Every structure is written in C-alpha cells, then in structure tokens.
C-alpha cells in the first residue's frame, strides 16, 4: 500500500496572531481528498472530513460533503496537485465562530510528496486486510468477557 502522496500542512489564524490567538493546523491529503485537524485552539473544526475543489477554492467539508465548514480561497491545486498560492483568506460560516468577527487567513506551512505507507485504512486507497485472529479465535486488542 505504498504510494507517493501529495499532502499539505495548512495553518489557519487571524491576520495578527499577537492579538488573535485562535488557530488550526490542518493536514490535507490531495490524493485521497481528505483532511484532518492536527492541532487547534479557538476554532471548532471537526477532527476530519472530505475535500472538495471549486474553481476558486478548496472546501473543507465535514463527514458530509454537502456541508462545507471552511473555504480556503485561492487554494486551487492543478491537475498535477501543484499549488500556486501560499496563502489566502479562510472563510467560515457565521455559526463556526459565534460572536466573533475576524478576518481569517490560511498559510501553506509544508508540502510533502514522500512515499508513505498509510497507518490507517482511512487514509489508504486500498482496503486494509482484517486483523489476524489469535489462538482461540479472539481478535487481538479486544477485551473478551
């Protein structure tokens, strides 16, 4: 299940991090069209979701692709997964940051094109084989009573 993947690390925060300390660090897997939240404070984003591309942005969706939770304006990978912009505006629905109005920005922190072996079937394009059964037919790591 080794593959060369295109992954982006994105930081979302306010225009002046010395005043607005809220942030989120996201990992975007452009090949699998999924994202995960690696760290955050003050931004209530789900732990993971799916990516959708438009002509002008990359949409971060929750587990339901119909419901974008954030739009990364200007982040538009081409057919080779190359990106031209290193930063842009991050747009949230009003209910994502209740009571706060601020300009949010995204910044490209890292691009990773390394050969990887996915640790989880969630980020793998192939099905993971089932866990082997130990003696007695019990699955490893499960408590049996």
What do you see in this structure?
With 145 residues, this protein is mainly beta. It has one domain (2-114). It is built from no helices and 10 strands. Strand 3 and strand 4 (34-41) form a beta hairpin.
Topology:
Layout lengths: L1 E3 L2 E7 L9 E7 L4 E8 L6 E6 L3 E5 L6 E6 L13 E5 L12 E9 L2 E3 L28
Antiparallel strand pairs: 1-10, 2-3, 2-9, 3-4, 4-5, 5-6, 6-7, 7-8, 8-9
Residue share in helices?
under 10%
Summed up, the helix count is 0
**By helix and strand content, what is the structural category?**
mainly beta
Question: How many E-type strands?
Answer: 10
Distance between the first and last residues' Cα: 35 Å
Average predicted local confidence, pLDDT: 76
Q: Order of strands across the widest beta sheet?
A: 2-3-4-5-6-7-8-9
| pLDDT < 50 runs, ≥5 residues | 125-145
Q: Which descriptors would you attach to this protein?
A:
single chain, 145 residues, mainly beta, two-stranded antiparallel sheet, 0% helix
How would you summarize what this structure contains?
Helices cover 0% and strands 41% of the residues.
